[in-house]
Design a protein that fits this description.
heterodimer; A: 353 residues; alpha+beta; six-stranded mixed β-sheet; five-stranded antiparallel β-sheet; 9 helices; disordered N terminus; disordered C terminus; B: 268 residues; mainly alpha; MetI-like fold; 79% helix; globular
Protein backbone atom coordinates (compact mmCIF):
# COMPACT_ATOMS: atom_id res chain seq x y z
CA UNK A 1 0.00 0.00 0.00
CA UNK A 2 1.49 3.33 -0.98
CA UNK A 3 1.62 6.26 1.35
CA UNK A 4 -1.16 7.91 -0.57
CA UNK A 5 -3.55 4.96 -0.33
CA UNK A 6 -2.46 4.44 3.24
CA UNK A 7 -3.50 7.99 3.99
CA UNK A 8 -6.75 7.33 2.20
CA UNK A 9 -7.43 4.23 4.25
CA UNK A 10 -6.85 6.13 7.44
CA UNK A 11 -9.11 9.04 6.56
CA UNK A 12 -11.76 6.59 5.35
CA UNK A 13 -12.10 5.32 8.90
CA UNK A 14 -14.93 6.95 10.72
CA UNK A 15 -13.82 10.03 12.60
CA UNK A 16 -13.65 9.07 16.19
CA UNK A 17 -11.64 7.76 19.02
CA UNK A 18 -8.56 5.68 18.42
CA UNK A 19 -8.10 4.94 22.09
CA UNK A 20 -10.24 5.22 25.17
CA UNK A 21 -9.21 4.41 28.72
CA UNK A 22 -11.80 4.28 31.45
CA UNK A 23 -10.92 4.09 35.13
CA UNK A 24 -7.66 2.25 34.60
CA UNK A 25 -6.03 1.10 37.82
CA UNK A 26 -2.83 -0.86 38.19
CA UNK A 27 -0.65 -1.39 41.20
CA UNK A 28 2.48 -3.38 41.94
CA UNK A 29 2.42 -4.23 45.62
CA UNK A 30 2.19 -0.88 47.37
CA UNK A 31 3.14 1.15 44.32
CA UNK A 32 0.18 2.55 42.43
CA UNK A 33 1.28 2.99 38.82
CA UNK A 34 -2.12 3.96 37.43
CA UNK A 35 -4.68 5.46 39.75
CA UNK A 36 -7.95 5.71 37.88
CA UNK A 37 -6.90 6.94 34.45
CA UNK A 38 -9.52 8.26 32.03
CA UNK A 39 -8.23 9.26 28.64
CA UNK A 40 -9.47 9.65 25.09
CA UNK A 41 -7.17 9.93 22.09
CA UNK A 42 -8.60 10.88 18.73
CA UNK A 43 -7.87 9.26 15.37
CA UNK A 44 -4.68 10.58 13.80
CA UNK A 45 -3.63 12.50 16.88
CA UNK A 46 -0.06 12.85 18.11
CA UNK A 47 -0.64 12.40 21.82
CA UNK A 48 2.15 12.63 24.39
CA UNK A 49 2.29 11.27 27.91
CA UNK A 50 4.77 13.42 29.78
CA UNK A 51 5.98 12.76 33.28
CA UNK A 52 9.00 12.15 35.49
CA UNK A 53 10.32 8.61 35.89
CA UNK A 54 8.07 6.60 38.14
CA UNK A 55 5.01 8.63 37.21
CA UNK A 56 3.35 5.60 35.61
CA UNK A 57 3.56 6.69 31.98
CA UNK A 58 5.40 3.59 30.76
CA UNK A 59 3.02 1.36 32.71
CA UNK A 60 0.13 3.07 30.97
CA UNK A 61 1.74 2.40 27.60
CA UNK A 62 2.31 -1.27 28.51
CA UNK A 63 -1.34 -1.55 29.57
CA UNK A 64 -2.45 -0.21 26.19
CA UNK A 65 -0.09 -2.59 24.36
CA UNK A 66 -1.37 -5.51 26.42
CA UNK A 67 1.87 -6.48 28.16
CA UNK A 68 0.13 -5.79 31.44
CA UNK A 69 -3.46 -6.27 32.55
CA UNK A 70 -5.18 -3.49 34.50
CA UNK A 71 -6.48 -4.32 37.99
CA UNK A 72 -9.67 -2.61 36.91
CA UNK A 73 -10.91 -0.37 34.14
CA UNK A 74 -11.52 -0.71 30.44
CA UNK A 75 -9.38 -0.21 27.36
CA UNK A 76 -10.92 0.40 23.94
CA UNK A 77 -9.09 0.56 20.63
CA UNK A 78 -11.09 1.98 17.74
CA UNK A 79 -14.28 1.42 19.69
CA UNK A 80 -13.53 -2.24 20.48
CA UNK A 81 -13.01 -3.46 24.04
CA UNK A 82 -9.54 -5.02 24.16
CA UNK A 83 -9.04 -5.05 27.94
CA UNK A 84 -8.52 -8.81 28.11
CA UNK A 85 -6.86 -9.36 24.75
CA UNK A 86 -3.17 -10.38 24.59
CA UNK A 87 -0.69 -8.09 22.77
CA UNK A 88 -0.72 -10.16 19.57
CA UNK A 89 -4.47 -9.72 19.23
CA UNK A 90 -4.39 -5.94 19.64
CA UNK A 91 -4.11 -3.42 16.86
CA UNK A 92 -1.24 -1.64 18.52
CA UNK A 93 2.44 -1.65 17.71
CA UNK A 94 5.23 -0.47 19.93
CA UNK A 95 8.53 1.28 19.34
CA UNK A 96 10.51 0.08 22.33
CA UNK A 97 12.91 2.20 24.32
CA UNK A 98 15.74 -0.28 23.66
CA UNK A 99 14.39 -0.80 20.09
CA UNK A 100 14.16 -4.59 20.67
CA UNK A 101 15.30 -5.39 17.13
CA UNK A 102 15.72 -9.11 16.49
CA UNK A 103 19.50 -9.56 16.38
CA UNK A 104 19.38 -12.70 14.21
CA UNK A 105 17.31 -11.10 11.46
CA UNK A 106 18.26 -8.63 8.74
CA UNK A 107 16.81 -5.14 8.71
CA UNK A 108 14.30 -6.19 6.04
CA UNK A 109 13.23 -9.30 7.98
CA UNK A 110 12.83 -7.23 11.13
CA UNK A 111 10.61 -4.73 9.37
CA UNK A 112 8.62 -7.43 7.59
CA UNK A 113 8.12 -9.67 10.63
CA UNK A 114 4.70 -8.30 11.54
CA UNK A 115 3.44 -8.87 7.98
CA UNK A 116 5.00 -12.34 7.91
CA UNK A 117 3.20 -13.59 11.01
CA UNK A 118 -0.03 -12.18 9.61
CA UNK A 119 0.50 -14.31 6.51
CA UNK A 120 1.04 -11.52 3.96
CA UNK A 121 2.53 -13.20 0.86
CA UNK A 122 6.24 -12.77 0.21
CA UNK A 123 5.94 -10.54 -2.86
CA UNK A 124 3.60 -8.02 -1.26
CA UNK A 125 5.68 -8.12 1.86
CA UNK A 126 8.86 -7.23 0.00
CA UNK A 127 7.10 -4.36 -1.72
CA UNK A 128 5.80 -2.89 1.55
CA UNK A 129 9.13 -3.39 3.31
CA UNK A 130 10.76 -1.49 0.45
CA UNK A 131 8.35 1.38 0.91
CA UNK A 132 8.86 1.40 4.67
CA UNK A 133 12.64 1.46 4.19
CA UNK A 134 12.22 4.44 1.91
CA UNK A 135 10.01 6.21 4.42
CA UNK A 136 12.69 6.02 7.13
CA UNK A 137 15.47 6.67 4.59
CA UNK A 138 17.26 3.34 5.04
CA UNK A 139 17.26 2.12 1.43
CA UNK A 140 20.26 -0.05 0.72
CA UNK A 141 20.65 -1.24 4.31
CA UNK A 142 17.99 -3.98 4.16
CA UNK A 143 20.52 -6.83 4.35
CA UNK A 144 22.40 -5.46 7.36
CA UNK A 145 22.03 -6.92 10.82
CA UNK A 146 20.89 -4.60 13.63
CA UNK A 147 24.34 -4.69 15.25
CA UNK A 148 25.81 -3.20 12.06
CA UNK A 149 23.67 -0.07 12.40
CA UNK A 150 24.14 3.18 14.29
CA UNK A 151 21.78 4.20 17.08
CA UNK A 152 19.80 6.51 14.84
CA UNK A 153 19.46 3.84 12.15
CA UNK A 154 18.25 1.25 14.67
CA UNK A 155 15.69 3.76 15.83
CA UNK A 156 14.40 4.09 12.27
CA UNK A 157 14.22 0.32 11.82
CA UNK A 158 12.20 0.04 15.03
CA UNK A 159 9.87 2.75 13.77
CA UNK A 160 9.47 1.18 10.32
CA UNK A 161 8.86 -2.26 11.87
CA UNK A 162 5.96 -0.82 13.87
CA UNK A 163 4.46 1.59 11.31
CA UNK A 164 4.38 -0.96 8.47
CA UNK A 165 1.56 -2.83 10.24
CA UNK A 166 -0.66 0.27 10.11
CA UNK A 167 -1.82 -0.13 13.71
CA UNK A 168 -4.84 1.62 15.15
CA UNK A 169 -2.45 3.19 17.67
CA UNK A 170 1.33 3.36 17.54
CA UNK A 171 2.95 3.37 20.97
CA UNK A 172 6.37 4.94 21.40
CA UNK A 173 8.24 4.47 24.66
CA UNK A 174 10.87 7.22 24.95
CA UNK A 175 12.11 6.27 21.48
CA UNK A 176 14.66 9.05 21.27
CA UNK A 177 16.05 8.64 24.77
CA UNK A 178 19.22 6.84 23.70
CA UNK A 179 20.20 9.32 20.97
CA UNK A 180 22.46 12.32 21.32
CA UNK A 181 20.97 15.81 21.34
CA UNK A 182 21.58 16.70 17.71
CA UNK A 183 20.20 13.42 16.38
CA UNK A 184 17.30 13.63 18.80
CA UNK A 185 16.24 16.99 17.44
CA UNK A 186 16.48 15.72 13.85
CA UNK A 187 14.45 12.64 14.72
CA UNK A 188 11.80 14.75 16.47
CA UNK A 189 11.10 16.54 13.22
CA UNK A 190 11.28 13.34 11.20
CA UNK A 191 8.93 11.47 13.54
CA UNK A 192 6.43 14.27 13.37
CA UNK A 193 6.63 14.30 9.55
CA UNK A 194 6.19 10.54 9.32
CA UNK A 195 3.21 10.73 11.63
CA UNK A 196 1.57 13.35 9.42
CA UNK A 197 2.38 11.32 6.32
CA UNK A 198 0.89 8.01 7.50
CA UNK A 199 -1.83 9.56 9.63
CA UNK A 200 -1.55 6.90 12.32
CA UNK A 201 -2.45 7.79 15.90
CA UNK A 202 0.73 8.14 17.99
CA UNK A 203 0.84 7.76 21.74
CA UNK A 204 4.26 8.97 22.72
CA UNK A 205 5.85 8.59 26.15
CA UNK A 206 8.63 10.93 27.22
CA UNK A 207 10.07 12.71 30.22
CA UNK A 208 11.45 15.47 27.99
CA UNK A 209 9.18 18.51 28.19
CA UNK A 210 10.63 20.11 25.09
CA UNK A 211 9.91 16.98 23.06
CA UNK A 212 6.36 16.95 24.36
CA UNK A 213 5.78 20.63 23.62
CA UNK A 214 7.23 20.57 20.12
CA UNK A 215 5.72 17.33 18.81
CA UNK A 216 2.29 16.86 20.34
CA UNK A 217 -1.16 17.78 19.13
CA UNK A 218 -2.26 17.21 22.70
CA UNK A 219 -0.40 16.05 25.75
CA UNK A 220 -1.08 14.72 29.23
CA UNK A 221 1.14 15.47 32.19
CA UNK A 222 1.36 12.50 34.52
CA UNK A 223 2.52 12.18 38.12
CA UNK A 224 1.89 9.65 40.84
CA UNK A 225 -0.18 7.44 38.55
CA UNK A 226 -2.61 10.25 37.73
CA UNK A 227 -3.12 12.55 34.79
CA UNK A 228 -2.55 16.07 36.09
CA UNK A 229 -3.61 17.92 32.97
CA UNK A 230 -4.63 17.09 29.43
CA UNK A 231 -4.54 19.65 26.67
CA UNK A 232 -2.67 21.13 23.72
CA UNK A 233 0.94 22.15 24.50
CA UNK A 234 0.15 25.87 24.55
CA UNK A 235 -2.61 25.40 27.06
CA UNK A 236 -0.51 23.17 29.30
CA UNK A 237 2.38 25.59 29.25
CA UNK A 238 0.46 28.84 29.52
CA UNK A 239 -2.28 27.66 31.84
CA UNK A 240 -0.86 24.91 34.01
CA UNK A 241 -3.56 23.14 35.97
CA UNK A 242 -1.57 22.94 39.17
CA UNK A 243 1.78 23.61 40.71
CA UNK A 244 3.19 20.27 39.65
CA UNK A 245 2.46 20.93 35.99
CA UNK A 246 3.76 24.48 36.28
CA UNK A 247 6.99 23.19 37.83
CA UNK A 248 7.50 20.23 35.54
CA UNK A 249 7.06 22.10 32.28
CA UNK A 250 9.41 25.00 31.98
CA UNK A 251 10.70 27.08 34.84
CA UNK A 252 7.90 28.07 37.13
CA UNK A 253 7.97 31.28 39.07
CA UNK A 254 5.33 30.87 41.74
CA UNK A 255 4.18 33.86 43.76
CA UNK A 256 1.72 34.13 46.64
CA UNK A 257 -0.15 37.43 46.36
CA UNK A 258 -3.46 38.41 47.95
CA UNK A 259 -4.16 34.78 48.90
CA UNK A 260 -3.71 33.57 45.32
CA UNK A 261 -0.92 31.49 43.81
CA UNK A 262 0.36 32.95 40.57
CA UNK A 263 2.70 31.58 37.91
CA UNK A 264 4.73 33.92 35.72
CA UNK A 265 6.94 32.33 33.07
CA UNK A 266 10.55 33.63 32.90
CA UNK A 267 10.22 34.97 29.36
CA UNK A 268 7.33 37.17 30.47
CA UNK A 269 9.29 38.93 33.19
CA UNK A 270 10.80 42.24 32.22
CA UNK A 271 14.05 43.10 33.96
CA UNK A 272 14.25 46.83 34.71
CA UNK A 273 17.14 48.74 36.15
CA UNK A 274 16.28 50.91 39.15
CA UNK A 275 15.90 54.07 37.13
CA UNK A 276 14.03 52.53 34.15
CA UNK A 277 10.31 53.32 34.12
CA UNK A 278 7.79 50.50 33.79
CA UNK A 279 4.94 50.63 31.32
CA UNK A 280 1.66 51.67 32.92
CA UNK A 281 -0.58 48.86 34.11
CA UNK A 282 2.24 46.42 34.83
CA UNK A 283 2.94 44.80 38.15
CA UNK A 284 6.38 45.88 39.36
CA UNK A 285 8.35 44.42 42.27
CA UNK A 286 11.88 45.23 43.45
CA UNK A 287 14.59 42.68 44.18
CA UNK A 288 18.28 41.81 43.96
CA UNK A 289 20.00 39.86 41.16
CA UNK A 290 21.62 36.81 42.76
CA UNK A 291 22.96 35.04 39.70
CA UNK A 292 23.50 35.69 36.01
CA UNK A 293 23.97 32.74 33.67
CA UNK A 294 24.85 33.10 30.02
CA UNK A 295 23.09 30.32 28.04
CA UNK A 296 24.00 31.35 24.50
CA UNK A 297 20.68 32.33 23.02
CA UNK A 298 19.53 33.94 26.24
CA UNK A 299 20.88 35.15 29.57
CA UNK A 300 19.18 33.84 32.71
CA UNK A 301 18.82 36.09 35.76
CA UNK A 302 17.92 34.75 39.19
CA UNK A 303 16.30 37.52 41.19
CA UNK A 304 15.46 37.48 44.92
CA UNK A 305 12.36 39.64 45.36
CA UNK A 306 12.09 41.76 48.47
CA UNK A 307 8.95 39.67 49.14
CA UNK A 308 11.23 36.65 49.53
CA UNK A 309 10.52 34.58 46.38
CA UNK A 310 13.29 33.58 44.02
CA UNK A 311 12.29 34.23 40.41
CA UNK A 312 13.99 33.44 37.12
CA UNK A 313 13.85 35.95 34.30
CA UNK A 314 15.38 35.51 30.86
CA UNK A 315 16.48 38.06 28.34
CA UNK A 316 17.37 37.41 24.72
CA UNK A 317 20.94 38.23 23.91
CA UNK A 318 20.15 40.79 21.25
CA UNK A 319 22.59 43.49 22.32
CA UNK A 320 25.83 43.49 24.30
CA UNK A 321 25.27 40.29 26.28
CA UNK A 322 28.58 40.86 28.05
CA UNK A 323 27.09 43.74 30.00
CA UNK A 324 24.67 41.43 31.79
CA UNK A 325 27.47 39.87 33.87
CA UNK A 326 27.77 43.15 35.74
CA UNK A 327 24.23 42.77 37.07
CA UNK A 328 25.10 40.32 39.83
CA UNK A 329 24.30 41.82 43.23
CA UNK A 330 22.55 44.81 41.71
CA UNK A 331 19.10 46.03 42.76
CA UNK A 332 16.57 45.70 39.94
CA UNK A 333 12.83 45.62 39.41
CA UNK A 334 10.81 42.88 37.75
CA UNK A 335 7.76 43.89 35.78
CA UNK A 336 5.05 41.78 34.25
CA UNK A 337 1.68 42.27 32.68
CA UNK A 338 -1.14 41.03 34.94
CA UNK A 339 -2.45 39.03 31.94
CA UNK A 340 0.67 36.92 32.11
CA UNK A 341 0.31 36.03 35.77
CA UNK A 342 -1.70 32.84 35.61
CA UNK A 343 -3.64 31.98 38.77
CA UNK A 344 -3.18 28.37 39.83
CA UNK A 345 -6.23 26.47 40.90
CA UNK A 346 -5.75 24.88 44.27
CA UNK A 347 -6.04 21.22 43.38
CA UNK A 348 -4.40 18.04 44.55
CA UNK A 349 -1.67 16.47 42.53
CA UNK A 350 -0.71 12.85 42.80
CA UNK A 351 2.40 13.96 44.64
CA UNK A 352 0.47 15.51 47.46
CA UNK A 353 -1.46 12.39 48.38
CA UNK B 1 55.47 -3.44 35.98
CA UNK B 2 57.19 -6.81 36.18
CA UNK B 3 60.75 -6.97 34.99
CA UNK B 4 62.06 -9.07 32.11
CA UNK B 5 63.04 -12.06 34.29
CA UNK B 6 59.72 -12.15 36.10
CA UNK B 7 57.93 -12.24 32.78
CA UNK B 8 60.17 -14.99 31.45
CA UNK B 9 59.79 -17.05 34.62
CA UNK B 10 56.00 -16.76 34.40
CA UNK B 11 56.06 -17.88 30.77
CA UNK B 12 58.23 -20.89 31.54
CA UNK B 13 55.93 -21.80 34.41
CA UNK B 14 52.87 -21.64 32.15
CA UNK B 15 54.59 -23.91 29.63
CA UNK B 16 55.52 -26.39 32.37
CA UNK B 17 51.97 -26.53 33.69
CA UNK B 18 50.57 -27.06 30.19
CA UNK B 19 53.09 -29.84 29.53
CA UNK B 20 52.21 -31.49 32.82
CA UNK B 21 48.53 -31.43 31.86
CA UNK B 22 48.81 -32.54 28.25
CA UNK B 23 51.84 -34.85 27.91
CA UNK B 24 50.00 -37.74 29.57
CA UNK B 25 47.10 -37.25 27.16
CA UNK B 26 49.40 -37.19 24.13
CA UNK B 27 51.27 -40.29 25.38
CA UNK B 28 48.31 -42.59 24.85
CA UNK B 29 47.89 -41.96 21.10
CA UNK B 30 51.68 -42.36 20.78
CA UNK B 31 51.54 -45.79 22.41
CA UNK B 32 48.55 -46.71 20.28
CA UNK B 33 50.62 -46.23 17.14
CA UNK B 34 53.75 -47.89 18.56
CA UNK B 35 54.52 -51.43 17.50
CA UNK B 36 55.71 -52.56 20.95
CA UNK B 37 53.25 -54.62 22.99
CA UNK B 38 54.23 -52.96 26.25
CA UNK B 39 54.20 -49.27 27.22
CA UNK B 40 57.90 -48.46 27.28
CA UNK B 41 60.43 -46.03 25.84
CA UNK B 42 61.98 -45.55 23.44
CA UNK B 43 59.11 -46.06 20.98
CA UNK B 44 60.06 -48.76 18.49
CA UNK B 45 58.26 -48.30 15.18
CA UNK B 46 55.01 -46.92 13.76
CA UNK B 47 52.15 -49.31 13.16
CA UNK B 48 48.42 -49.30 12.46
CA UNK B 49 48.24 -52.92 13.56
CA UNK B 50 46.68 -52.20 16.95
CA UNK B 51 44.13 -49.91 15.34
CA UNK B 52 43.22 -52.69 12.92
CA UNK B 53 42.99 -55.26 15.65
CA UNK B 54 40.79 -52.99 17.77
CA UNK B 55 38.44 -52.13 14.95
CA UNK B 56 37.86 -55.83 14.36
CA UNK B 57 37.33 -56.69 18.01
CA UNK B 58 33.59 -57.34 18.43
CA UNK B 59 33.79 -56.51 22.14
CA UNK B 60 35.15 -53.06 21.41
CA UNK B 61 32.71 -52.45 18.59
CA UNK B 62 29.74 -53.34 20.77
CA UNK B 63 31.05 -51.23 23.67
CA UNK B 64 31.48 -48.20 21.42
CA UNK B 65 28.06 -48.78 19.88
CA UNK B 66 26.48 -48.99 23.32
CA UNK B 67 28.23 -45.85 24.57
CA UNK B 68 27.23 -43.87 21.50
CA UNK B 69 23.61 -44.99 21.81
CA UNK B 70 23.54 -44.11 25.51
CA UNK B 71 25.14 -40.72 24.90
CA UNK B 72 22.75 -39.87 22.06
CA UNK B 73 19.58 -40.80 23.94
CA UNK B 74 20.88 -39.09 27.08
CA UNK B 75 21.59 -35.95 25.08
CA UNK B 76 18.08 -35.89 23.66
CA UNK B 77 16.52 -36.32 27.11
CA UNK B 78 18.83 -33.68 28.55
CA UNK B 79 18.02 -31.23 25.76
CA UNK B 80 14.29 -31.53 26.20
CA UNK B 81 14.20 -31.59 29.99
CA UNK B 82 17.04 -29.12 30.54
CA UNK B 83 15.71 -26.45 28.20
CA UNK B 84 12.15 -26.83 29.47
CA UNK B 85 13.43 -26.36 33.02
CA UNK B 86 15.41 -23.29 31.92
CA UNK B 87 12.32 -21.75 30.27
CA UNK B 88 10.25 -22.37 33.37
CA UNK B 89 12.81 -20.90 35.75
CA UNK B 90 13.45 -17.94 33.46
CA UNK B 91 9.88 -17.04 32.75
CA UNK B 92 8.10 -17.54 36.03
CA UNK B 93 8.44 -16.12 39.51
CA UNK B 94 7.18 -18.39 42.24
CA UNK B 95 7.88 -19.30 45.82
CA UNK B 96 10.72 -21.83 45.98
CA UNK B 97 12.06 -20.98 42.53
CA UNK B 98 15.64 -20.59 43.76
CA UNK B 99 15.41 -23.86 45.65
CA UNK B 100 14.27 -25.69 42.52
CA UNK B 101 17.04 -24.07 40.50
CA UNK B 102 19.54 -25.31 43.10
CA UNK B 103 18.09 -28.83 43.09
CA UNK B 104 18.42 -28.93 39.30
CA UNK B 105 22.10 -28.05 39.43
CA UNK B 106 22.89 -30.34 42.37
CA UNK B 107 23.35 -33.64 40.44
CA UNK B 108 26.35 -32.17 38.62
CA UNK B 109 28.04 -31.24 41.87
CA UNK B 110 27.01 -34.41 43.69
CA UNK B 111 29.72 -37.10 43.75
CA UNK B 112 28.86 -39.71 41.13
CA UNK B 113 29.06 -42.45 43.70
CA UNK B 114 26.09 -40.97 45.57
CA UNK B 115 24.02 -40.61 42.42
CA UNK B 116 25.03 -44.14 41.44
CA UNK B 117 24.24 -45.86 44.72
CA UNK B 118 20.97 -43.97 45.17
CA UNK B 119 19.79 -44.85 41.70
CA UNK B 120 20.80 -48.48 42.05
CA UNK B 121 18.91 -48.85 45.34
CA UNK B 122 15.90 -47.15 43.83
CA UNK B 123 15.92 -49.41 40.77
CA UNK B 124 16.24 -52.49 42.99
CA UNK B 125 13.46 -51.22 45.24
CA UNK B 126 11.18 -50.64 42.25
CA UNK B 127 12.16 -54.00 40.72
CA UNK B 128 13.52 -52.30 37.62
CA UNK B 129 15.98 -54.54 35.86
CA UNK B 130 19.33 -52.83 35.18
CA UNK B 131 19.72 -52.20 31.46
CA UNK B 132 20.77 -49.59 28.91
CA UNK B 133 17.76 -47.55 30.07
CA UNK B 134 18.88 -47.41 33.69
CA UNK B 135 22.27 -46.18 32.50
CA UNK B 136 20.56 -43.51 30.40
CA UNK B 137 18.47 -42.38 33.35
CA UNK B 138 21.62 -42.13 35.48
CA UNK B 139 23.44 -40.06 32.87
CA UNK B 140 20.46 -37.84 32.23
CA UNK B 141 20.40 -36.68 35.87
CA UNK B 142 23.62 -34.75 35.47
CA UNK B 143 23.48 -34.03 31.72
CA UNK B 144 20.26 -32.05 32.21
CA UNK B 145 22.33 -29.59 34.19
CA UNK B 146 24.72 -28.58 31.40
CA UNK B 147 21.84 -27.94 29.00
CA UNK B 148 19.89 -26.12 31.70
CA UNK B 149 22.85 -23.92 32.61
CA UNK B 150 23.66 -23.01 29.02
CA UNK B 151 20.09 -22.24 28.02
CA UNK B 152 19.34 -20.29 31.20
CA UNK B 153 22.50 -18.20 30.83
CA UNK B 154 21.52 -17.40 27.25
CA UNK B 155 17.95 -16.50 28.17
CA UNK B 156 19.20 -14.20 30.92
CA UNK B 157 21.50 -12.43 28.47
CA UNK B 158 18.68 -11.99 25.95
CA UNK B 159 16.70 -8.73 26.06
CA UNK B 160 13.27 -9.54 27.45
CA UNK B 161 11.77 -6.93 25.17
CA UNK B 162 12.51 -9.14 22.12
CA UNK B 163 9.78 -11.59 23.14
CA UNK B 164 7.42 -8.71 23.86
CA UNK B 165 8.26 -7.18 20.49
CA UNK B 166 7.34 -10.41 18.71
CA UNK B 167 4.00 -10.60 20.52
CA UNK B 168 3.46 -6.91 19.82
CA UNK B 169 3.94 -7.55 16.09
CA UNK B 170 1.23 -10.17 16.21
CA UNK B 171 3.16 -13.40 16.74
CA UNK B 172 1.46 -16.12 18.76
CA UNK B 173 3.33 -17.93 21.52
CA UNK B 174 4.29 -20.72 19.13
CA UNK B 175 5.45 -18.31 16.40
CA UNK B 176 7.52 -16.36 18.92
CA UNK B 177 9.11 -19.61 20.09
CA UNK B 178 9.90 -20.72 16.53
CA UNK B 179 11.05 -17.36 15.11
CA UNK B 180 12.69 -15.68 18.09
CA UNK B 181 13.37 -18.02 21.01
CA UNK B 182 14.82 -21.00 19.16
CA UNK B 183 17.19 -19.03 16.90
CA UNK B 184 18.42 -16.99 19.85
CA UNK B 185 19.17 -19.99 22.04
CA UNK B 186 20.24 -22.35 19.24
CA UNK B 187 23.99 -22.09 19.87
CA UNK B 188 23.38 -22.58 23.60
CA UNK B 189 21.39 -25.72 22.77
CA UNK B 190 24.13 -27.08 20.50
CA UNK B 191 26.78 -26.32 23.11
CA UNK B 192 24.72 -27.93 25.84
CA UNK B 193 24.09 -30.99 23.69
CA UNK B 194 27.79 -31.44 22.91
CA UNK B 195 28.80 -31.13 26.54
CA UNK B 196 26.07 -33.56 27.56
CA UNK B 197 27.26 -36.05 24.92
CA UNK B 198 30.86 -35.75 26.08
CA UNK B 199 29.92 -36.13 29.74
CA UNK B 200 27.81 -39.20 29.08
CA UNK B 201 30.30 -40.87 26.73
CA UNK B 202 33.13 -41.16 29.26
CA UNK B 203 31.12 -41.50 32.46
CA UNK B 204 32.33 -44.34 34.73
CA UNK B 205 31.02 -44.08 38.25
CA UNK B 206 27.27 -43.72 37.79
CA UNK B 207 27.48 -46.24 34.93
CA UNK B 208 29.16 -48.79 37.19
CA UNK B 209 26.19 -48.71 39.53
CA UNK B 210 23.40 -48.50 36.99
CA UNK B 211 24.68 -50.98 34.40
CA UNK B 212 23.69 -54.61 34.41
CA UNK B 213 25.73 -56.80 32.08
CA UNK B 214 26.34 -53.88 29.71
CA UNK B 215 29.88 -52.80 28.91
CA UNK B 216 30.20 -49.17 27.95
CA UNK B 217 33.52 -47.96 26.61
CA UNK B 218 34.90 -46.68 29.92
CA UNK B 219 33.78 -49.82 31.74
CA UNK B 220 35.43 -52.02 29.11
CA UNK B 221 38.65 -49.99 29.41
CA UNK B 222 38.70 -50.38 33.20
CA UNK B 223 38.22 -54.12 32.90
CA UNK B 224 41.05 -54.45 30.35
CA UNK B 225 43.44 -52.40 32.46
CA UNK B 226 42.66 -54.63 35.43
CA UNK B 227 43.44 -57.86 33.60
CA UNK B 228 46.30 -56.26 31.64
CA UNK B 229 46.10 -58.53 28.57
CA UNK B 230 45.01 -56.14 25.87
CA UNK B 231 46.72 -52.85 26.71
CA UNK B 232 47.52 -51.89 23.08
CA UNK B 233 43.82 -52.08 22.23
CA UNK B 234 43.03 -49.99 25.31
CA UNK B 235 45.41 -47.33 23.99
CA UNK B 236 43.57 -47.22 20.69
CA UNK B 237 40.16 -47.00 22.36
CA UNK B 238 41.35 -44.31 24.77
CA UNK B 239 42.72 -42.28 21.85
CA UNK B 240 39.31 -42.54 20.24
CA UNK B 241 37.58 -41.44 23.45
CA UNK B 242 39.92 -38.45 23.69
CA UNK B 243 38.84 -37.35 20.23
CA UNK B 244 35.16 -37.95 20.84
CA UNK B 245 35.16 -35.92 24.05
CA UNK B 246 37.57 -33.12 23.19
CA UNK B 247 36.00 -32.11 19.88
CA UNK B 248 32.54 -31.40 21.28
CA UNK B 249 33.99 -29.54 24.27
CA UNK B 250 36.07 -27.31 22.00
CA UNK B 251 33.10 -26.64 19.72
CA UNK B 252 30.87 -25.93 22.70
CA UNK B 253 33.42 -23.51 24.13
CA UNK B 254 33.54 -21.69 20.80
CA UNK B 255 29.76 -21.41 20.67
CA UNK B 256 29.33 -20.04 24.17
CA UNK B 257 32.41 -17.87 24.35
CA UNK B 258 34.48 -20.12 26.60
CA UNK B 259 31.95 -20.64 29.37
CA UNK B 260 31.09 -24.17 28.26
CA UNK B 261 34.50 -25.66 28.88
CA UNK B 262 34.83 -23.88 32.21
CA UNK B 263 31.56 -25.38 33.30
CA UNK B 264 32.62 -28.92 32.51
CA UNK B 265 35.80 -28.60 34.52
CA UNK B 266 33.94 -27.10 37.42
CA UNK B 267 31.28 -29.78 37.30
CA UNK B 268 33.32 -32.93 36.98
Amino acid sequence: MSTATLQGAVSDRREGLALRLQGIRKSYGHVIAADGIDLEVREGEFFTLLGPSGSGKTTLLRLIAGFERPDSGRIELGGRDVTTLPPNARETNTVFQDYALFPHMSVADNIGYGLKVKGVPRGRRRERVGRALKMVRLEGLEHRRPNQLSGGQRQRVALARAVINEPEVLLLDEPLGALDLKLRQEMQIELKNIQKEVGITFVYVTHDQEEALTMSDRMAVMAGGRLQQIGPPIEVYEQPANEFVAGFIGISNVLDRDGKRLVVRPEKLLLLEESEPAEPGMSVEPGVVEQVVYVGMITRFTVRLDHGELLVAVRQNMHAPGRAQGFEGRRVRLAWSPDHAYVLKTGTTGEEK
Amino acid sequence: MEGFWTRMALRVWVVLVLLFLFIPILLIPAYALNSSKIQSWPLTSFTLGWVNLTLNDPEVVSAVGLSVRIALVTTIFALVLGSLAAFAIHRTRFFGRDAISFLLILPLALPGIITGISLRSSFTFAHVELSIWTIIIGHTTFCIVVVYNNVLARLRRTQGSLFEAAADLGASGLQTFRDITVPLISTALVAGAMLAFALSFDEVIVTTFTAGAQNTVPIWILAQIRNGQRLPEVNVVVSFVILVTIIPVVVAARLTGGSGAARVQAGR
